[in-house]
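#data-curation
PF: Archiving a pair of folding outputs for the training set. Convention for this channel: one message per protein, sequence first, structure tokens after, nothing in between. First:
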Amino acid sequence: MDKPLKFNNISDLMRRLSLTPPAHPMMTLVNYDQVKIDLRDAGSWFMLDFYKITFKKDFHGSVKYGPGTYDFKEGGMAFLAPGQVVQMTANPKDYEGYALYFHPGMLDGHSMANGIHNYGFFDYAVAEALFLSEKEKQIIETLFEAIAIELDNSIDQYSENVLVSQLELLLNHSDRFYNRQFLTRKNMHHDLIGRMNIWLNERFNGTDPLINGLPSPQDIATHLNVSQRYLSDMLKTLTGKTTQQHIHLALIEKAKVLLNQTNLTTAEIAYHLGFEHPQSFNKLFKQRTSVSPVQFRRDRLN
């Protein structure tokens, strides 16, 4: 990847794209149906110091985020957090729908300043974009239109509060629709869960110790080719447990087998399972089973 063009503020980005300067310095909404994008930087990577939300209602182009390309097909939404990269495509037909940009500084003094981190989809890969039903598209389009109207008003003492409230409503609806997507795409997600369990079993059931330490949520996400946050949010919705909790479940089951069927000491079992310190293994085992490894083995022998 070439070194990305970095934009610290929305005004600089708009100027680079030959678009109208933002009426509000911290937020702007681009309606691609009403503007013409300057494509001189096509093929270049952009890094933004602000958030971007893309909404495409009826779209048949592709957008490249990070290492992958996503075909929106019938439309949807994608979310970009500050510090991520996006590549500018050369096809004018790729620019349809809306793009909402807002700077983190706009949230200062609002509960959203901390709450924005609860919207995990800003950390999703673009291949995990939000697919929308026709009814959901209507809701999102109405919200974007309301933001457009407010941005078109003269800035006054209420402008920021109104815009932040509208943004929060947009994100809450997006959160709801992602939860629906996890549930309605169960077959695909259950396949991911199955592949995750197979991978964990292979890691813990090997005869060799885990010399590189315990598998991490990022290890699993990389193996499954999904983002870590998407995997954890999906698992939490469908199973009630995070990725880390699934790792611990697989680990405890393997520890029980070793305690029952081998003469390894608890310290040897801890090292075999990737723990650097036996005390950490003992603590985790007791948290998950309510007994220590020694007591568990003693109870089984008795």
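PF: Second:
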Amino acid sequence: MGSYEVRVTDAAAGAPEDPTGFWVEHVRDNHGALHVRFAEPAGFRGGTVVQRAGEQQLVEFWSDAVEYSRTRADIRADDDSGLVLVLAGAGELVVDQDGTDVRLRPGQGVVAGKSRPLVLRHAGRARGWVLNLGAGRAAGVVDCSRGLGAVVRTMVRTLSAQRSTLDRVEFVRAVESIAGLVPLCVRPDGRTGSLAALEDAVRVYVAEHATDPDLTPAGVARAVGWSLRQVQLALARAGTSPGRLIREARLRRAMGLLRLAPGATVGSVAFACGFRSATSFGVAFKQRYGMTPGEARESS
């Protein structure tokens, strides 16, 4: 089973002779392929606290003025299609994706996709958090000033502050809980009206009932009180379908069980996650992750 690690890094202490070179490699190790441009390379100061357990990662960061850009070449280099939640803690963070600047002041956040060009920049003495969310719905602004968004902000800050008291299982479950709440707080441009609300309701219902082997697209539609066609239209706006949403939720849960409970058999994991047979589970799992369930368990 993989471990939970907490790593505190200071650019100047890590490489006094070349803090910017050290910082570039450190940031790429945390976030994948990207480019870094420093406002004032000489005497650059920056630091991070990285909490990591497998693919689950929360990074608290602070530094002098800098700009990070993820280009199309970077996207091709590591093929990471996941989402990240960026929260501002001090100063102003500017996130530019799809030609739109989102200015984040302390307590504000945005969900950004790593599969499209992205720029994050800030002035000196800025501080913030970046949380990996994995694959999911479209990116957009997160209102962290009230309601559920404020709950998410508090959870992220608390998860960071309690880093030394957590173990792997606690950290992973906390990140999964936050990732499950974030979609309910996102309001991308143009996402208004009943279809957006319906998509939210469908995602919540599927997340709560994915392990039921009798769960079907039609059953989801009945449960939320809409027609199957309306549910399909709502999810099509986000590039998915009821069937794919159910399958993805089951596979994510299965991946978590394989890593957190290495003694469980593949068959028991399949049935616990809503699959009717180990064979169909194995086929779907390999199509999604490029490896068999057994290989995923051995790599944890």
